[in-house]
Amino acid sequence: MKQTAKAGFGKRLFEFFASIKLSVVVLIALAATSVFGTVIQQGKGFGTYAAEYGQGWAKVIWALGLHNMYYSWWFQTLLVLLLVNITFCSLKRLPHAIRLMTYKEPVFDGKPVAIHERWTTRIKGAEGAAAAEKLEALLRRRMRKVFRAERDGAVYLLGTRGGWARMGVYVTHFSLFLFGLGAIVGAQWGFKGFVNIVEGDTVSQIRLRDGGVKDLGFQVRCDDFEVTFYTDPQGRPTGRPKDYISDLTVLENGQEVLKKRIEVNAPLIYKDIYFYQSSYGQAGGRSAWLTVFGPRRNILFHRKQVAKGGAVDLENGDRLILRDLTGDFRGMGPAVEVVLQPAQGDPQSTVVFQAPQGNHRRLGPYVVRVDGVETLMYTGLQVAYDPGVPLIWAGCIFITLGCLIAFFVSHRRVWARVRPAEKGGVEVFLGGNASRNRIAFEQWFQDLCAEAQELFEK
Fold first, then answer.
1. Rounded distance, CA 427 to CA 353, Å?
2. C-alpha to C-alpha distances, 301 to 311, 313, 316, 325, 359, nearest whole angstrom
3. Contact 277, 379 (CB under 8 A)
């Protein structure tokens, strides 16, 4: 009794996971929850959701994992359930498809064989053996495999072709399994993040979408960054970026192992980790070109390049220090902050802007002009590692193959029987079926029968 109960429970469990109803429920759940992933921005901080939806709804979004929905435990559970359902559905129906694909019994009398097209003719004065040989030769030309059997004085033939068409749906199922498995593998063992690298700097860690930090195991250096802008009809930059490019170098153990110039949609790939060009910005100033006039309006130095934090000597032991600089100070353009350190007395500071005609600013007995500012740029990189990508690509191949098989290939079978006729001669019967596209099969079958008729009339 216990074994029977266990067997009954196992069968019910198998039927549950193999049911079409479960497929429909899971697919509807995945589609419905994916709406949240489309409407709600993914991968943002709690403050973003609080500002957009309020503190209460932000807590709900965070608690349910809707901020990172496709990586949440419940979404992954739905994917696992879908994979289990696909597997059990295939296991339930695959044996029947294999039986149909490998069926090779020519004798159809009294068998549950579905014959869609039929043709019968009587050949006078013919011998059964000769007629059977001719018909078998015809089927071997038109079919891939032909099986023969003899019973009660009759010769039975079965010709088949395209049997593997029965596997089209299972190839498609396998592709869906690969898609789901690839998504799960990518979510569990992959990562997505971002990093900003200032020109000349090197990083070995990135910031993940959930706020964590990921060590890459190697270093990435930004050697240079360039940005070009669209221009107006007068040739002046509009401020809209046309293209931005980063020259990156990968280092391991202090050695350069890879150099790549990247731009949008042309990433650097190293150890299956993708570095995409995502954004850019100013990271502060590097140096400025200064002109300084003395107390008597004499030029102490002209267009002298001074590094940030650097200093130059003036008259009487005074010194001018470049404390800070930026490419855009409060939307008013490039500016520098300079400090006059006199030989005696307290230091004085001022901010000097760079203007098209030059902007002079008095600082103590001196006048300072900014002729140019060299700013540092940073490149913003989106970093992604997805070990499930090979599974996704494999799924693409299999789903294409499965659809081609399912829509363009049919399993055709033709049964034939040659037996003595009651009034002399032989009676020839042909019948057949196709797994799909019966209209095309009907025409093909008529052509086969016409060819057989012509063959027997010779």
1. 107
2. 13, 10, 15, 19, 16
3. yes
Residue 401 corresponds to which tokens in the numbers above? 């193959």
State how far the Cα of 140 lies from the Cα of 448, in Å rounded to an integer. Answer: 12
Give the tens place of pLDDT for each residue, 377-395: 889 999 999 999 999 999 9
Q: Give the pLDDT of residue 4.
A: 56
**Encoding tokens for residue 177?**
């399994």
* C-alpha span between 263 and 244 (Å, rounded): 6
Largest CA distance in the chain: 137
Alpha-helical (H) ranges within 278-388 are: none
Distance, in Å, from the CA atom of 438 to the CA atom of 446, rounded to the nearest integer, reads 12
- Each residue's pLDDT tens digit, 183-210: 889 988 999 999 999 888 899 999 987 7
Q: How far apart are CA 60 and CA 87, in angstroms?
A: 34
Which residues of the chain are modeled with pLDDT < 70? 1-7, 125-126, 236-239, 331, 355-358, 458
In the DSSP assignment, the letter for residue 200 is T
The amino acid at residue 222 is: C
| Confidence at residue 108, expressed as pLDDT on a 0 to 100 scale | 86
How would you class 445 by CB atoms within 10 Å of its CB: exposed for 0-12, middle for 13-18, buried for 19 or more? buried
Count other C-beta atoms under 10 Å from residue 57's C-beta: 14
Nearest to 227 by CA among 194, 252, 264: 264
| C-alpha–C-alpha distance, residues 426 and 126, integer Å | 6
Give residue for tokens 């033939």. 157
What's the confidence (pLDDT) of residue 447? 92
- Rg (alpha carbons) of the chain, rounded to whole number: 40
Q: Topology of 102-162+410-457 in CATH?
A: Double Stranded RNA Binding Domain (3.30.160)
Q: How far apart are CA 340 and CA 312, in angstroms?
A: 10
Query: Considering the domain 187-281+379-399 in this protein, what is its CATH number?
Result: 2.60.98
Quick one: how far is CA 404 from the chain centroid? 22
Tokens of 385: 């590692």
Q: Can you tell me whether residue 425 is helix, strand or coil? A: coil
Separation of first and last alpha carbons in the chain: 69
Count the alpha carbons within 13 Å of 136 in the hemisphere toward its beta carbon: 16
Paired tokens of 377: 């740029």
Confidence (pLDDT) at 1? 47
Q: What is the pTM of this model?
A: 0.71
* Of 453, 409, 407, 410, the residue nearest 430 (C-alpha): 453
